[in-house]
UniProtKB/TrEMBL annotation:
<dbReference type="InterPro" id="IPR018391">
    <property type="entry name" value="PQQ_b-propeller_rpt"/>
</dbReference>
<dbReference type="InterPro" id="IPR011047">
    <property type="entry name" value="Quinoprotein_ADH-like_sf"/>
</dbReference>
<comment type="similarity">
    <text>Belongs to the bacterial PQQ dehydrogenase family.</text>
</comment>
<dbReference type="InterPro" id="IPR017511">
    <property type="entry name" value="PQQ_mDH"/>
</dbReference>
<feature type="transmembrane region" description="Helical">
    <location>
        <begin position="40"/>
        <end position="58"/>
    </location>
</feature>
<dbReference type="GO" id="GO:0016020">
    <property type="term" value="C:membrane"/>
</dbReference>
<dbReference type="Pfam" id="PF01011">
    <property type="entry name" value="PQQ"/>
</dbReference>
<dbReference type="GO" id="GO:0008876">
    <property type="term" value="F:quinoprotein glucose dehydrogenase activity"/>
</dbReference>
<keyword id="KW-0812">Transmembrane</keyword>
<feature type="domain" description="Pyrrolo-quinoline quinone repeat">
    <location>
        <begin position="339"/>
        <end position="815"/>
    </location>
</feature>
<dbReference type="InterPro" id="IPR002372">
    <property type="entry name" value="PQQ_rpt_dom"/>
</dbReference>
<dbReference type="GO" id="GO:0048038">
    <property type="term" value="F:quinone binding"/>
</dbReference>
<feature type="transmembrane region" description="Helical">
    <location>
        <begin position="87"/>
        <end position="108"/>
    </location>
</feature>
<feature type="transmembrane region" description="Helical">
    <location>
        <begin position="120"/>
        <end position="138"/>
    </location>
</feature>
<keyword id="KW-0472">Membrane</keyword>
<feature type="domain" description="Pyrrolo-quinoline quinone repeat">
    <location>
        <begin position="167"/>
        <end position="280"/>
    </location>
</feature>
<protein>
    <submittedName>
        <fullName>Quinoprotein glucose dehydrogenase</fullName>
    </submittedName>
</protein>
Amino acid sequence: MEQNTRARSKWPAIVLGLLLAAAGLALAIGGGKLLSLGGSAYYLIAGVAVIVAGILLALRKGAALWLYAAILFATLVWALWEVGLDWWQLVPRVAIPCLIAIIMLLPWWRKPLRSRGGSLALAASIAAAILVAIASQFDDPAHIEGTLADNRASTEANPAQVAGDDWPAYGGTNAGTHYSSLDQITPENVGELEEVWRIQTGDEPGPNAPPEITNQNTPLKVNDSLYICTSHSRAMALSPETGETLWEFDPEISTQGAEDFSGWAHMTCRGLAYYDAANYAGGAADSEDDSTDTAAAPSPLFADSDAFAIDVSLLNGFDTTATDEGENAPSAIISQTDVMCPRRLYLPTADARLIALNADTGEPCAGFGDNGEVDLTRNIGSFDPGGYYSTSPATVTENLVILGGHVTDNSSTDEPSGVIRAFDVRTGELVWNWDSGNPEETEPLADDETYTRNSPNVWAPISVDEDLGLVYLPMGNATPDQYGANRTENDETYSAGLVALELETGQVAWVYQFVHHDLWDMDMPAQPVLIDLATDEGTQPAVIQPTKQGSLYVLNRETGEPIVPIEEIPAPQGAVEGDWTAETQPRSALNLLPPPLTERDMWGATPFDQMMCRIQFNSLRYEGQYTPPSLEGSIVYPGNVGVMNWGGVAVDPERQALFTGAKYLAFVSRLIPRDDVEEGQGSASEQGLQPNAGAPYAVELGPLLSIFDLPCQAPSWGDVAGIDLQSADVVWKHRNGTTRDSMPLGLPIGLPVGVPALGGPLTTAGGVTFMSGTLDQYLRAYDITTGEELYKARLPAGGQATPMTYTGADGRQYVVISAGGHGTFGTKMGDYVIGYALPE
C-alpha cells in the first residue's frame, strides 16, 4: 500500500517536470533564433534553465525548487530592467512564470521534493513578484496627468466656429470644430444621461456586402428634423425628440456592373450637407440661434438662368420685415429653384452621384442637375466598380456645393482623378474644378475631356472660411501608396498636405505639405479645423490639420504660415530599387507621436508569443518613423490607420482646447516583385495583398500581430488626450477603452489596456466631451479639463461614428450616435441610431 502511495505521488512531479522541460525547449529554440537576429539572450538562457528545472522536478530533486526560484527572481529583475513598473509590460514576462511557481508550491508537487529551503526560496520569489505587481498599479507610463486651463474669460468664440441649438453641418459648422455651445449636460449631471429613443434603419450588411461596410454617419439637426444617411446611401429624416421616421429616400444605388458590392473598398456615408436659401436672403430661417448659421453674414443670391424677382415672403421662413436697402432688401433676387426647394440636403451616393433632396419632403429637387442629381463620373474616365465615389459629405457655401471623392488605394497606377468640384448650389451646374494634376486650369472640362488620371484626391471632409473666401483641402496621395517612382511634379507638390483654394475661382492660394514623397499612406485623413487662436502675437486665424503620423499642424489659415513651429527632421533612407525617399520630413512641435519602437516594446499574452513577436520585430526593417517599404518587410509605426483618422478632433474655441483620440498600432508593409504576383491576385481591401497593377511591386499590408492575433507592440493601443492650444502642450493623456468586445473566444473580459478607436469626438460648452469609436461598444463622456471618464453607455453594435448634439423642441439637450459597426475594424455590425438626454 505504502509503495503504491509513493508511486502515485511521484506522477504529478514527473508530469509537471516534463511539461516544464518541453516549455523550456520551446523557449531555448526560439531564444536561439532571436539571439541570432541580434535580439535578447534572455529567452535562450531562461529556456535552458527551465529545461534543467523540469528535469530535476521530474526526478523529484529538491534542487528544482531552488533553481526555479532563481529563474523567477532573475526574470523579475530582467523585466524591471527592460520595462520598469509598467503593469501591462510586466504581465507577459512574469505572470505565467509566477503561476508555475505557485503550482510548484502546492502539496502534490512540493512534498515529494522534500526541500524546505527550496520552498522558502520559491515563496520569497513569488512574494517579490507580487510586491512588484502592487507597485506597478501606481505607475502608468502612458498616463499624463494635468488640468486644462480655462481660457473662456479671455477668449470669445467666432460664431462661424460654433454650433448652437442645431447641428447644421458634419463638423457642427463648416469650420469643423465639432463644438456646441450647449451646456445643459455638465460633468456634474452627465451620469444621469439615459437612452430616450432608438431606431433601426433596416440598412444592415447583406450576404454580398463588402467586409469594409460601416455606418460612420454623423446626423444633422436643422429645420426641426434630424437627418441621417446609411451605408447604402439612403437618406432619412427623423423626429429629433423621438426618432420617429418623417420621410425616407432610397437612391437605389447601382453595382456599376459588378455582381455585387464586393469590389467596394468602403461602403459608407459619413454624412449629408444642408443648404437653406433663407440663410443668405435676409434672415436665418427656422432658427432663433444665430450661432447655427454657417455663413458669417447674409448676402444676396446671385441671379442665374432661371432667376426672377420675387417677394421674399414667398419663401417659407424668410424674414419679411427687412426694409433696408441692399443685401437685406425684400426684393432680393431669388432663383426659381430656391422657391421650389429652399431647404435642401445633398446626398453623395456609393455609385458616384450627388443628389439634392427637398429637406421638407425627401423628394429630389428637380431643378438641380438632371432631375435632382449630378453624375459624378462625368469626365472621370474608366474605373472598376466601387473605384470612385464620395464617402464624406459635401461642403455647402452660399453659392457652391463642394466635394472630393474616394479613390481605391493600391489597385493600380491608372485610377480616377482626385479632382475637387464645386457645383452651383441651386442648379448643379459645375462652376469650377481643381485637379491637382492640372492645378491652374479650373474651368470646367469639355464633355470629351478627362481629368488627370491618378492625381491625389481628397476623401475626408472639406472646410471653408467664407469670410476669407478660402476652401481647405486635406490632400491624399497618388496611388499606389508604397511606391512613388513614377509620380509627377504636381503629385509631389500637392499630395499629403493641406491646400487652400480661392472659393470663387478654385485657384490655389497656398499649399503646405506634411509628408514628402509619401510611401506610407500618410494622407490627410480628417477635416481641417478652423479656429481663431489667441497667440503672443494676437489672435490669428488658424487651421489645424490632424494627421495619421501624429502631428497636429497649426497654420495661419490666411497665409499658410506655421503658427506652431514645424521642424524638418532627418528621415531613414534606402528605398527599394527605382524609388527614392525624402531626406527630411516635417514634424510639428504639437504632436501625439509615440516613442520609436524597440524590441523591449514587443508584447504578448505569454512569454512565448512575446518571444515570437521579438523574432518578427528583428526580422523586419525598422529605423523609426518613415522607414521605407522594403522587400523583407518594413514596420510602419504609427501605422497607416493613423494616430488620427477620419474622426479627427474636437476643438473648444472658447477654452482654446483640443480633444482627440489617438491610436497606436504598428503595421507591416512588404513589397512583392511583380513577377511573384499571379494575375488577378490581391484585392481592393485595406489589408492583405494589394495588386498595384502597373507598378513593379505589389504590396502586402497588415498590422503587426502575434500568433494569437494580438498587437505585437505593448499597450496602450488607444488613448484620449487634451491639448492646450495656446501653449501647444499635451496637458493630459489617458488610456481609453477596454478589451470587452475583442477578447479571444468572445470572452467578456474588459481589460483597461487602451484600445484603438475609429470615430471622432464631440465637445460642448458644458465641459463634457463625447466619443464612441473604441473597439468596445460604448458611448463615453469625459471631462474635457482632466480627461476623467464620467459616463459610459453600452451600445448594441460598434460605435465607429462621431456623435453630435442639439436642442429639441422640448428644450432638452440630446446626444445622438450611430451604432452600425465596422467591417475592417471587426466590431459588431448593426443599423442603430440612438438618442440620449437627461431625465425630464
